[in-house]
Design goal:
There is one protein chain. The protein is an all-alpha fold and 447 residues long. It has one domain (2-446). Helix content is 75%, strand content 2%. The chain has helices spanning 2-15, 18-33, 53-72, 74-79, 83-102, 106-115, 117-127, 133-162, 178-194, 203-210, 213-235, 239-264, 270-291, 294-325, 336-339, 344-354, 361-376, 380-403, 419-434, 439-446; strands spanning 42-46, 49-52. A two-stranded antiparallel sheet has the order 1-2. Helix 3 (53-72) packs antiparallel against helix 5 (83-102). The longest helix has 32 residues, at 294-325. The protein is globular and about 65 Å long. Its EC number is 7.1.1.2. Keywords: Electron transport, Membrane, Mitochondrion, NAD, Respiratory chain, Translocase, Transmembrane, Transmembrane helix, Transport, Ubiquinone.
Length: 447
């Protein structure tokens, strides 16, 4: 895997062949996915790196999404907007993500966790859409850095107190005194911003709207999962404090998801709507993770994988519409079914995936999450009802407003779709609907 990644770096630097990099990425995905059925708990791959089932799922998702975003960004090559630099930044981002998910040391995890910010910042500033991309990049930079410094202090304190930062060897923090509580919140704050939790999410819509299609796809598909992955890894160190404060995170996740779902109903920008829907989905994921039950953790992992495929596909569709119309507004992009009928089915499949309808992977995960939250508190069913209902409402709002109605009269002719676009969308939809067959294997491997 790492060998093919290094080969891609060399091809990009010395040859600059876009097609060769695409073929190599496809081969890399195939080789990685061959091992997906292995029932391993943990194995080392050297250099302080290792994989277990959770890491392997997210590494596979990272490689798959980065491959698709290179295919979806063919416009960069066609217009020759520093295409070699674009490929190089994407490969660096993939390398950092693989390093993050394979780290077996918390300090190495922290360094690679924060390093993912740099290539994402370059993507937004270098290939973003509007002049506001500078503000969006600064928003993302300062939100993430402001939250990450307490995590660094927490890790250094953990090393000073326990003598090691190796995963599996660090002793958990005992006690419920003021220091332990402060330690817990300093550690989890960085993951809440990256997830993002409601109230810490203001950087996400700005970053999504101003990012190029590749930035939006990897941001929704993989980078939001870094927060969930880090939370799963570190929450076991603070299990005693977490039991006291889990009501806070579940409440903020579920109720915040309801509020964000209502905010989705007043969005006219397609990318902003999909970005806010990511916040709503991640709120329920946080509710499952913080309870530390088998149902909650397994469901959270499955929803993270399903959401990564689904939201990435919706951003890809939004970019296709933007390339045709020159606008992302739902007021301008109405009646798409009239002149882009071939994409109507793909819009429908990704929209029903976004609202967790069968047979998508999101359904399996949300059933597990709902079971864990409701079994923890019967009152939680009220928030879950609101979240599930409004999730369907804003998704149907987006689909009906974009596909139906009278299209803009200034639009005389339009290409319905290209083979490369159908290929990228099929790579989103097929795993989203097929992997549920192996869903039991995925969840059992994680347990």
């Amino acid at each position: 895997m790492l060998g093919i990644l290094v080969f891609n770096f060399l091809v990009t630097i010395f040859v600059g062949s876009w097609e060769l990099v695409q073929v190599n990425m496809f081969i890399m995905c195939f080789l990685v996915l061959l091992s997906l059925n292995h029932d391993f708990y943990f194995f080392s791959i050297g250099w302080g790196l290792g994989l277990d089932s959770l890491s392997f799922l997210l590494v596979s998702l990272s490689i798959w999404v980065v491959m698709m975003m290179i295919y979806a960004s063919y416009g960069v090559k066609k217009l020759d907007i520093s295409s070699k630099g674009f490929l190089l930044v994407n490969l660096i981002l993939l390398f950092v993500l693989v390093l993050t998910f394979c780290s077996t040391d918390f300090f190495m995890f922290y360094v690679s966790f924060e390093s993912s910010l740099v290539p994402m910042f370059i993507l937004i500033l270098g290939w973003g859409y509007q002049p506001e991309r500078v503000q969006a990049g600064v928003y993302m930079l300062f939100y993430t850095l402001f939250a990450s410094f307490p995590l660094l202090v927490s890790l250094l304190s953990l090393y000073s107190a326990k003598g090691t930062l190796k995963m599996g060897l660090v002793e958990s923090v005992e006690g419920l005194d003021m220091v332990s509580v402060l330690w817990y919140f300093c550690t989890m704050f960085a993951f809440m911003v990256k997830l993002p939790l409601y109230l810490f999410h203001l950087w996400l819509p700005k970053a999504h709207v101003e990012a190029p299609v590749a930035g939006s796809m990897v941001l929704a598909g993989v980078l939001l999962k870094l927060g969930g992955y880090g939370f799963i890894r570190m929450v076991s160190l603070f299990s005693g404090v977490n039991k006291v404060f889990n009501w806070l995170w579940v409440s903020m996740g579920v109720l915040g998801g309801v509020i964000v779902s209502l905010m989705c109903l007043r969005q006219v920008d397609i990318k902003a709507l999909v970005a806010y829907s990511s916040v709503a989905h991640m709120g329920m994921v946080l509710g499952g993770m913080v309870l530390m039950s088998n149902w909650g953790l397994g469901g959270a992992v499955v929803v993270m994988v399903g959401h990564g495929l689904c939201s990435s596909g919706l951003f890809c569709l939004a970019n296709i519409v933007y390339e045709r119309l020159g606008s992302r507004s739902l007021m301008v992009g109405k009646g798409l079914l009239s002149f882009m009928p071939n994409l109507g089915l793909l819009w429908f499949l990704l929209c029903v995936g976004n609202m967790a309808s069968p047979p998508t992977l999101n359904l399996l995960g949300e059933i597990s999450l709902i079971t864990s939250i409701v079994s923890w508190s019967k009152v939680g069913i009220l928030g879950i009802m609101g979240l599930s209902f409004f999730s369907a409402v804003y998704t149907l709002y987006m689909y009906s407003l974009s596909q139906h109605g009278m299209f803009v009269s200034s639009l005389y002719s339009c290409c319905s779709g290209k083979m490369s676009e159908y290929f990228v969308l099929a790579l989103h939809i097929i795993p989203l609907n097929i992997v549920i067959i192996k869903g039991s294997v995925v969840v059992s491997n994680f347990y």
